[in-house]
Amino acid sequence: MITFENVSKQYGSTILLESVTISINENHRTGLIGVNGSGKTTILRMLGGEELPDSGSINKPFDMRIGYLPQEVEILDQKTPLEIVLQSFAHILNFEEQLQRLPTDGSALKETLKKIDSLCSAMDYHDGYSLTAKAQMILGGLGIPKENWSQPIQLLSGGYRMRTVLGKLLLEAPDFLLLDEPTNHLDMDSLVWLEKYLEKQKYGMLIVSHDRDFLNRITTNIADICNRKITLYQGNYDAYIRTKEETEAAQLNRARNLEAKISQNERFVERFKAKASKATQAQSRMKLIEKLRTEMPELSQSAKSIHFSFPEPSQSGVIPLQFTAIKAGYDDKTIFSDFTMSVNRGDKIAIVGPNGAGKSTLLKLASGLLKPMAGSVKYGHNVSIRYFGQHQLEQLDPEKTLYQTVIQDSINTEKTFVRNILGAFLFSGDSVDKTVKVLSGGEKARLVLATILASPGNVLLLDEPTNHLDIKSVEMLADAMKKFSGTILFVSHDEFFISSVATRIIEIRPGMIRDFPGTLSDYRTYLEMLFPNDTTEQNSSSPSCLSCKSETDIKEQRIKDRELRKKLTRSIERLEKEISSAEENLAALQTILHDPSNALNHELLYQTSQQIDSLQTELNGLIKQWEERQLELEAIVE
Hints:
Mean pLDDT: 82
Low-confidence stretches: 536-552
Shape: globular
Number of strands: 18
Radius of gyration: 33 Å
Structural class: alpha/beta
Strand order of the largest sheet: 5-6-7-3-8-9
Distance between the termini: 52 Å
């Protein structure tokens, strides 16, 4: 067990933990939750030995190997990702070289044999001959392209550096793993792989994540930081929510009952304390009041639900964005080509796919920050675009306060509105008067997002908007985006957020961009088919992998059928509208033709007859097309 005994921790005047006593099973996968600033990262750092509690003690088995993934990593190294992942096993990877260096003369033979035995035991224990293959499998699963495995880590993005450190920890397989927002730099492909990998591991974990679906799939317990205490709950995140709601409802009822009793007894004391005949009873009631107050439960001060609504934007044209025959990329590298897509007013489009396929590129094209190599991006009538990307952090004025930064562009300058939107992004109280220059990178990202949403325009382009939010803030943002009357294109790997907001899914993969013909649940099922059942094997010719490929082919065919059904259904609906319109026009012309008052107007009758013949021919053609589409639709087996 890992135990906290009367642990307290504070920074300046901010108390994070106060006399916390708790035991965490080292074999459980525990999710650590709480609002931003409640101490989640501090707890991981204390368990990882990077910080000490101010008072109390943290006890764990003396031989426990702990692995820690922080939110941000700084790697100043010329090593490659593959070398870094294998770094902890360097002493056994040069097994044959070590054997050759051992002395073979008689006097040292006994020590040589011991060393050989030790090396062989280490090779067997760590399965040394397959370590490199496992490292490559992990790097591939985490989405680091093969061509980057042999490049110096300094040349790679922060996201790939973070994945490399995570890969190193996974290969080391510690006794207990500390993960601080492990999904932040992952796409959905690598997120699905990581979930499948972690589910198979026998070691325990303490995980901080804002991704509630990830917590639901991985965790067996939840540790909730609230009111400077930590409370353990059995089950995943959804089970925790149900239990906590029931507990808080019971505590609230008990508090109300106790308050009623206290109020009743206070009235008695106030009425009779001056009467000698009732003095004894009054004293007794005062003691009872004190006792009732000690029994009063401490009600949860968990984050208040902030209900934020976007300011109503002006209405754009029916097609706010039109991409036509787009070829896009950077320098001589083409990311995608021959891409055509219409974005309809009110669409809420989630852009999904592996990192590097072009998701952010598509948003930059839409924003005008990137010009296409060929083709065109056209904007509809009255389009007002707001774009959220990491580069905007550099454009903040470091000398302005948070409040000044948001209000300068806000279309609603009421103090309550500005403070509400800042509060929604975890800035409240005196923190709104801090200057931008003292903010961390994550805080700046939240501030930029708050600034954009205070004046959202009618087309929002958001690149990973949930990365620096806690669970409650993600839920708030999702709720506000669902109600937003404008158009949204966003990149995210947060399944709860996507499923809550998206009305349309665009999938981008190397050489392919398409409207995904299904829900997010369908897309996840499709991704799961891409991975073998055994994530610890790399052999692509193994039966399980061949079976996986076969199942993937079947799934691909189903998706193609669904996409075709979707197109046919839309075509049938369009034809039905055209048929209905033609029939109405035909009926109107028939009325003119049979109207007795028109009997002598031969020119009108002749023109009407000609129109009826032409319209009837058009109607027959539409009906024939409708019948053909219906037959095609019926021919596709569900």
